[in-house]
Amino acid sequence: MTRDVPSPAVMDYDPFSPEVLSRGEEYDRIALAAGPVLYFPQYYLYALARHDHVRSAFLDWRGFCSGHGTGIVHTGREGNWRRQSPVLENDPPNHGRYRKILANVLTGSALAEVRTRFAPAADDLARAAVERGTFDGQRDLAEAFPLVVVPSLLGLPEEDREVMLLYSDLNFNAMGPDNALRRAAEARAREGDIAARVAMLCRRESLKPGGLGDRIYAECAAVDMSDEDAAILVRTFFSASMDTTANAVGFTLHALAQDPALWARVRADPALIRAAFDESLRHSAPSPHIGRTTTREILIDGVTIPAESKVLLMIGAADRDAQRYDDPDRFDIQRKAAPHLAFGAGIHACIGQQLAKLEAELILGALARYAGTLELAGTPTYQVNNWLRGFATLPIHAGPIRAGEQAA
């Protein structure tokens, strides 16, 4: 008698179509219900959506490697449009030495410097937004603050900050398929000669002395790494730390603006800001998926994923998995959100996560000092990007603190 061998659930939708990208949470639920292993035939792409499976894949770097690209392209076979990141798209034994460079510059003292140096900028942005009354929470706060912090921290010229946004747009869209979104991002990048400008900005002579970029070069030189390696690490730092942080802060703002009682609690106890940001990361993943490549046959709940297969780890779905979280669609800052997977897990867990949390704390804490009330002032619009989720616009109305009411 022939025994039936379980097969992956074949998905009949395009995960990178504008419709799906703009309704990601709905399709996350479809993926979670479909089975333990999914397959998107148009891309020869396997996928995992359930929390335990995604987390296990993150931890199994030997079976699910990053070195063949963290998008949907198997870069070991097809190459890549840029040199791969030696931190994000690399595996042991070389991965650790590059990661250590970034760890050496993102120290506790560096974070303390960020708090001291950029708190006034957060204060200025928040005060100006509340004085306007109605503002775009995504552009005026969530995006504006990282755009102050990250370039300044690295020592990049202020006049070239827009280049970073265009490069990030290309970088994240290029993680997906060769579709209209990717081609549009490539066209914008070609028009501005973005790749060449970024390469120039990441050179040591373009960076201000004493910034984190300059320190990356010094750390690389101390262990006989080349200037080319240092430049790629600088590029990795800014390309990985802009859009995801901005989108995560935007999602947190959205959640706070929808719940007046929650905003009142946060204002009364700013220590809750970190809990709100962490729950937002679980509830609305700014980077909803990442790619891996299998190095051997992988068996999951009886289903085989062949060796050398691209696998999409569906972080956004995993962090809404009812097998892991009670009432997962509810935003609840009292739940134990960790270990959510928005920052990954294992050796490739996001090395800049403490910086992202600090940025959120600074800008949302500043807003709490000026905004007595917070509410949506219209319907938000979503950005459509192959590899990110976030708002394009987030209209918010903030009421000033009333006379006699104590600021947070």
Structure summarized in a few sentences:
The protein is of the alpha+beta class and 408 residues long. It has helices at residues 18-21, 24-34, 51-59, 75-78, 94-105, 108-132, 137-154, 161-173, 180-191, 194-201, 212-222, 227-241, 243-257, 260-268, 272-283, 315-318, 353-370, and strands at 9-10, 38-40, 45-48, 64-65, 134-136, 289-294, 298-300, 303-305, 310-314, 371-376, 381-382, 391-393, 395-400. A 6-stranded mixed β-sheet has the order 1-2-3-9-6-4, sandwiched between helices.
3D architecture notes:
This protein has helices at 18-21, 24-34, 51-59, 75-78, 94-105, 108-132, 137-154, 161-173, 180-191, 194-201, 212-222, 227-241, 243-257, 260-268, 272-283, 315-318, 353-370, and strands at residues 9-10, 38-40, 45-48, 64-65, 134-136, 289-294, 298-300, 303-305, 310-314, 371-376, 381-382, 391-393, 395-400. With 408 residues, it is an alpha+beta fold. It has a single domain (9-400), classed as Cytochrome p450. The strands form four sheets. It has a six-stranded mixed β-sheet, with helices on both faces. A three-stranded antiparallel β-sheet has the order 5-13-10. The protein has a two-stranded antiparallel sheet with strand order 7-8. Helix 6 packs antiparallel against helix 7 (137-154) and helix 6 runs parallel beside helix 17. The longest helix is centred in the first third of the chain and has 25 residues, at 108-132. 48% of the residues are buried.
